[in-house]
Amino acid sequence: MTIERIAVDHLSVDYNGSVAIFDASLRLCSGSICGLVGMNGAGKSTLFKAVMGFVRPSCGHVRINGMAQGHAQRQHAVAYVPQSESVDWNFPVSVAEVVMMGRYGAMNLLRIPRRQDHAAVRSSLERVELWPLRKRQIGELSGGQRKRAFFARALAQGASVLLLDEPFSGVDVRSEKLIVELLLELKRRGRSVLVSTHDMAHVTGFCDQVVLINKTVLAYGDTGEVFTPENLARTFGGSVPEQRDGGVGDSP
User: Fold this and answer.
1) Whole-angstrom Cα distance, residue 54 to residue 12?
2) How far is 204 from 22, CA to CA, in rounded Å?
3) Model confidence at 155: pLDDT above 80
4) In the sheet where 18-29 sits, what is the strand order?
5) Is 87 inside any structural domain?
6) Is residue 96 assigned to a domain?
7) What does the H/E/C string look like for the chain?
8) From CA 94, how far away is CA 100, in angstroms rounded?
9) How many domains does the chain have?
10) Does the keyword Signal apply (predicted)?
11) I need a surface site. Which of 49, 102, 122, 252 has the fewest CB within 10 A?
12) Stretch 233-244: mean pLDDT, rounded?
């Protein structure tokens, strides 16, 4: 059965009078990977923050799994993998501790991990091939390993909706391929993923849906129908970005 995972209706967000997003609407159903495509400053990160509840919209609303946003957050239905630039890599926390943060919603007020929490952390780290590095300080990892660690945190949370903000920026081929394989696995399990990317090959390679954004949602839907030269020209101000040849994992 298909479930409407994300419903954004007429969403507008402004910062100190400057409009970041206006009148944006979209739908994302279960068992899908949706690419979020737009120029820098087009509102991609703001849309993520609005869905997560990190910013308050000036109008419009967001529903997750049919629930009001606040209730969905209390149910820990949404997991967020931020851009690397927004993380303090010098913070004295280990890789395993970062992933354990994804389990906080399932713990009591004292946040004392139980057996199932430790099991979820181990399973998530093994899936991203970082279990041997679990005791490392998070900043000691490479760029690709850092991305995988935060992806593991999202996996440990067990959310039905995952938001990934530029997960492939600065990563190695191995990490990119592993993340894509895990995204496809989540899709098969009925999860929904919204992933922003500047690489057009990612959209055509593994995204079955796409959202085109430029201060508002210009178009969204099945990739084959929406990802057209005409729509891309509108999204990028008349300049369509080049696509690299081949798909994910083609590099040696």
Assistant:
1) 14
2) 27
3) yes
4) 18-29, 4-15, 59-64, 67-68
5) no
6) no
7) CCCEEEEEEEEEEEECCEEEEEEEEEEEECCEEEEEECCCCCCHHHHHHHHHCCCCCCEEEEEECCEEHHHHHHCCCEEEECCHHHCCCCCCCEHHHHHHHHHHHHCCCCCCCCHHHHHHHHHHHHHCCCHHHCCCEHHHCCHHHHHHHHHHHHHHHCCCEEEEECCCCCCCHHHHHHHHHHHHHHHHCCCEEEEECCCHHHHHHHCCEEEEECCCEEEEEEHHHHCCHHHHHHHCCCCCCCCCCCCCCCCC
8) 10
9) 1
10) no
11) 252
12) 72
**What is residue 95's predicted lDDT score, i.e. its pLDDT?**
95
Tokens of 202: 């990612």
What is the token pair recorded at 245? 């040849």
In this predicted structure, what is the pLDDT of residue 84?
Answer: 74
For residue 5, what are its two tokens? 């995972």
Residue 209, in any domain of the structure: yes
In CATH, what number is assigned to the domain containing residue 230?
Answer: 3.40.50.300
Q: Say which residue the tokens 């929904």 belong to.
A: 192
Please answer whether residues 85 and 93 qualify as being in contact, where contact means their C-beta atoms are separated by less than 8 angstroms: no
